Amino acid sequence: MRAITDAMVRLLIGAPLHSDGKLTIVSLATEAGLRRNKLTHKHTGLKDLFYALVKAREPLTETVPEATPARAAKQQQDLARVRAERDDLRTQLQLMARIVHVLEIENYRLNETNRILEGQLADRAAVPDLTRRRRT
Fold first, then answer.
1. 8 and 49 in contact (C-beta within 8 Å)?
2. Please, is 38 exposed, middle or buried when counting C-beta atoms within 10 Å of its C-beta (0-12, 13-18, 19+)?
3. pTM for the full predicted model
């Protein structure tokens, strides 16, 4: 039973190992290493499943639209547009990274200036604040 399901999979994906690759019971039996009558008489459920899978697969291949030159040209235009947008976004990203870097440097310098000024104010704080004293 496992050999039959493995053979089904190989035939349906188009990778047969032991048969001609056609989607028939004869090819399935050959792929599974069995005689055809084992599928038609003993494993009828698997035979029916195989036929159902083949039938379900066929409309999918027929409904796939063929690539037309107009469609290919539109896809090329879309691809060119998307690539241009990507390049523009990369440029903007590099610009933003530079801006962030400059702002980080400026912020660092302002923090250093604040530390220096706070240090100078702390030195002046040694002088008593006479305005805070109250008379009692």
1. yes
2. middle
3. 0.42
